[in-house]
Each structure stands twice: as structure tokens, then as C-alpha cells.
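Nucleotide-binding protein GCM10009564_25640: C-alpha cells wanted.
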Amino acid sequence: MADSSFDIVSKVERQEVDNALNQAAKEISQRYDFKGVGASISWSGDKILMQANSEDRVKAVLDVFQSKLIKRGVSLKALDAGEPQLSGKEYKIFASIKQGISPENAKKVAKLIRDQGPKGVKTQIQGDELRVSSKSRDDLQAVIALLKKQDFDFALQFVNYR
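Answer:
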């Protein structure tokens, strides 16, 4: 019998982030507490730019965006938001979306699977994803359960389960 396998990835659906950004922009334009403070959120290249005339307001813009991401099913671990910076008369926050598992994080996950996972489970790092294979599908499900219990500082998804 051939090995069963699945891939561990850390990917974010760009369209979901875009939808969350558009919803946040709409809410910011309509909310009373954001009137007249120059609050906005938009794409700036591949980063997300949030700006307002005070540090508290720009943090509130970030909070609105985060709540929209949660509603769209995007993990906040994928959002890498910087600190508010004063630029002229405005405060700005730049945020980026983290994609892929770094080699160090992939090694960390592979070591955890080797140490605590069922015997006979093999891991293989392939670029920015990690392939887990085993003869037993039950072992693969045990690995998924093990990883879901862990609290990593990056988002994990399990794809290509076969």
C-alpha cells in the first residue's frame, strides 16, 4: 500500500485579505468616531497602510482591520503589523501578510513531529511547505491533532490530504 500524506503550509488567501481590507475601509468611512481624523486603510504595494491623525485612532483602524480578518477566517498570526510611526502630522502603521513557512520554523515543526508524533511518520521540507507522510492515515490524523494543540507564532493549514 502506498504512503498517505498531507502538506503543512502557511498561506493566506489574498482575496480574503482584500475583502477584509475593503470592509474595514467602508466601516472606517462610515463610523462616527473616525469622522474628520483622516483615518484610512489601503494597499501600498504589497503592504497595507493604515493612517490617522493620532496614535490611538491609527490603532483603532488596525483593530477594525483585525476584526474583519477574523470574520473572513484569516489567522491574525499571518498579519505582521508594525508600530505606529509619526510621519508629518499623521501616524502610520505598515502591515504585511506573512506567507510560507520559514526554513527555521519548518525544522521546528519537523522536530516536534519526530519527537512527539507517532513512529513511522516521515517529514520532508519542500520549499516553504512541509510534507508529512506515513503508511497509516490514523498516524497522520494524530500528527494534525498534535500540531493543532501547539501554539506556534505562525499560522498553519493542512492541505493535499491523500
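The first strand starts at residue 4 and ends at 9. The chain has a mean pLDDT of 89.

Cheers.
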